[in-house]
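USER:
Make up one protein:

ASSISTANT:
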Amino acid sequence: MDGNNSGDYGADSIVVLEGLEAVRKRPGMYIGSTDTRGLHHLVYEVVDNSIDEAMAGFADMIYVVINEDGSCTVTDDGRGIPTGMHEKGKSALELALTELHAGGKFNSNSYKVSGGLHGVGVSVVNGLSTKLEAIVKREGKIFRQSYKIGVPDGPVEVIGETEETGTKITFYPDPTIFETVEFDYTTLQNRFRNQAFLNRQVTIDFEDRRTGQKERFHYDGGVSEFVKYLNAAKTPLYPEPIYIAGQRNGVDVEMALQYTDGYNEIVGSFVNTINTPEGGTHVAGFRTALTKTINDYAKANNLVKNGRTFSGEDTREGLTAILSIKMPEPQFEGQTKAKLGSSVAQSAVS
């Protein structure tokens, strides 16, 4: 080993990053990347908190606006982030927005299921924004606090009275962190459409004030309507998707599937409305159950001979399916939540 590169390594070499410094130092650890995917992940994190309020039964309207100045505003009619003083000597609102792993998602009494499980979402958004403003309506008052690069401009203040409840977050992505701070309408449009399909009780209003585009997402048909949407340009083998819903081992399972005359397989999977593009244990359970069910049916009705069976690929040819599960404390492989690792999900689905 080259001794010239060793240098001095003592107690003074240990660097402690305070507050949200770690997020700014290594943003990829929290949002996956600093390209356009990471930029849009900021929006996802804020909207996911509103979706969590909806899943808990406290919200049904979410408004997302891309403002003319390049900022993004997310508003919901949920309970509003708590603003009272915490035992740590700060407002609960300030803690949620400035401390990693601080939030109601760790308390099962507040949220039985949650997409923003890790408790870093909104605080990470704050740390990676040049400015952020939080306005909270609850307990008859309107509270406000603003931040610059994750640091409060001042304490939480009361700016008015109201009978409404909810949270409004406006943030400005930091151009020194991201390769681009230009939000893409289509990327966000697809995300919000999916979330509305998965939460039939929710309405998401999306507006881009840069272009004047507006859209409302609300689907009473839920995941079945989602499958129909995906098969709009295909020829289904039967008119209505097969819909299955139930609960096992504390996991709520909802799925819809429909075969077409095509050859490709499309299986969209979600955990607490979070898309898992890399699948995981819930998808493994679904595929195992589907193959077994079809083979059991074929055998019971003498549809196959000489003990032959269908392979998994055979049973999924031309399949379009949406699998959505909701469970407490899902274990994802990484903060970006692309793949589910919870073993209980596999047995629940299969």
